[in-house]
Write a structure and sequence with these properties.
Layout lengths: L5 E5 L14 H13 L4 E2 L4 E7 L12 E7 L7 H10 L7 E7 L7 E5 L7 H10 L5 E6 L9 H5 L5 H24 L1 H8 L3
InterPro entries: Pept_tRNA_hydro, Pept_tRNA_hydro_CS, Pept_tRNA_hydro_sf
Subunit structure: Monomer.
Protein name: Peptidyl-tRNA hydrolase
Length: 199
């Protein structure tokens, strides 16, 4: 039996070597959400860092917000599917309530897009999730990091830190992505699309 909780999974790679790179923006958003809600992530046997809480506000004023499971993997990006599957099973969360937050080179930096399903766009974390979950029908909150300049390889580009100009805008960008995650859960996907796709 499924419950009403949501799983928000920030994709990325483990360790200080990767924590400030473009590929880890999903994990940065989880950090932002944990600070907002006042919950700490705990390392678990499910190959994840996990925190559970309720969003501060819900669709009905005065009532607590939806329950959320916030998580990042302790493994590498291309192994994201296993931990997500384990978390969904452990907390009895249906795939329709899984939100993956990830970098996307196909949209410009400081751009937010949201969708359910679709292709993986060469993103190994999404590819792993789709393979293990057996469906594409989970929400993707796509954080634009843009294409690499010149002939630089895309795989190398996403594993490098943000530029100086990008770093100046990054805190507000991460805050906006976190807003989009909360909006997806409380108000629905269409509201996110109407708010952010035209920016």
């Amino acid at each position: 039996m499924t419950n009403e909780a949501w799983l928000v999974f920030g994709l990325g790679n483990p360790g200080p070597k990767y924590e400030s790179t473009r590929h880890n923006i999903g994990q940065m958003v989880i950090d932002e959400l944990t600070q907002r809600i006042g919950v700490k992530l705990t390392r678990t046997k499910l190959r994840c860092n996990v925190g559970t809480a309720r969003l501060p506000t819900g669709a009905t004023p005065g009532l607590p917000g939806p329950r959320v499971v916030l998580a990042t993997s302790t493994g590498y990006m291309n192994e994201s599917g296993g931990p997500v599957r384990q978390l969904a099973d452990f907390y009895s969360i249906d795939t329709a309530r899984i939100v993956a937050v990830h970098d996307d080179v196909d949209i410009p930096f400081d751009t937010i897009k949201a969708k359910i399903g679709g292709g993986e766009g060469g993103h190994n974390g999404l590819r792993s999730m789709t393979s293990v979950l057996g469906t594409k029908d989970y929400t993707r909150i796509r954080a634009g990091v843009g294409r690499p300049p010149g002939p630089q390889d895309t795989a190398d580009y996403v594993l490098k830190p943000f530029s100086k100009v990008e770093r100046a805008a990054l805190p507000m960008f991460i805050s906006d992505i976190a807003d989009a995650v909360e909006m997806r859960i409380i108000e629905g996907l269409e509201r996110v699309q109407l708010t952010y796709h035209s920016r």
